[in-house]
Amino acid sequence: MLDLIDIGANLTHDSFDADRDEVLERAMASGVARIVVTGTSVTSSVQAAALCKAHPGRLFATAGVHPHHAAGFDAHTAAALRALLANPAFVAVGECGLDFFRDYSPREAQRHAFAAQLELAGEVSKPVFLHQRDAHEEFVALLRAVRDRLAGGVAHCFTGGVHELDAYLDLDLYIGVTGWVCDERRGGALRSAVPRIPLDRLLVETDAPYLLPRDLAPKPQSRRNEPKFLAHIVERLAALTNQPVDVVANAATANAERLFGLQRNT
Fold first, then answer.
1. Alpha helices by DSSP H, 37-86
2. Which among 74, 100, 157, 203 has the fewest CB atoms less than 10 Å away?
3. In the prediction, which pLDDT does 266 show?
4. Between vectors from CA 205 to CA 178 and to CA 168, what angle results, nearest 5°?
């Protein structure tokens, strides 16, 4: 049995409302012993706090504001995040970053929210949980300017190629890989980059309920992703890197423990 940590699952999503406990049981049965619940807004971060309280030692969380919600970021938002991050169950700041693909929030609002959360991460000495889409150069520039004040970070749901990977590794970031690597339509650049990810920089995540691995057989009828499929992603990574599955799994788990300050379960 593998001992895995899903470093990014949106367990506060309403698609889990009817069977969240069963989802957690299936995760544990598949070797996913710990999960980091992604906070994408103050509301979802507060909900994540309640989940962590109900499942101590198994669930942890991030607290942050996704770029899609950046338009509403203000001093009250920052204060609410700061209060949440005082809880030891919160292990990172984010999901934060830039998304110029959707532009659901104005770009200047995204820059402001991202910069504020980077400052907050330095203040509370917790790593950053990072999102970037179609904003690579500006994203890297903002990170580089403050990198020496950050307690590490992860490029969450990395989908890029070698160029982006090298830039993130130069910033000493961890690389979070999802079921995107299993997508025969869109995952080619990522699959080419995966062998270049050092084992001591690799993290694994499902981003559930999103990004259901497309090569699952049989596929769940609901098309909903959940943490129990993390082992499938690890198997794909092992094949791409020509490494034994347990070597990849153990490395990813040790990396998550190191980045987020998690104690190994006994």
1. 42-54, 75-85
2. 74
3. 53
4. 70
CA distances from 14 to 4, 22, 49, 223, 224 (A): 24, 14, 16, 14, 11
pLDDT value of residue 265? 63
Cβ burial, residue 5 (10 Å; 0-12/13-18/19+): buried
- DSSP bridge pairs for 130: 96, 155
CA gap 158, 205 in Å, rounded: 10
**C-alpha–C-alpha distance, residues 229 and 205, integer Å:** 9
Residues of the chain with pLDDT under 50: none
pLDDT digits (tens, 9 = 90+) for 30-39: 999 999 999 9
Instruction: Report the chain's terminal Cα–Cα distance, integer Å.
Output: 14
Fill in the DSSP letter of residue 158: -
Note the pLDDT of residue 16. Answer: 98
pTM: 0.97
Q: Is 104 exposed, middle or buried (0-12, 13-18, 19+ CB in 10 A)?
A: middle
Q: What is the per-residue pLDDT for 242?
A: 97
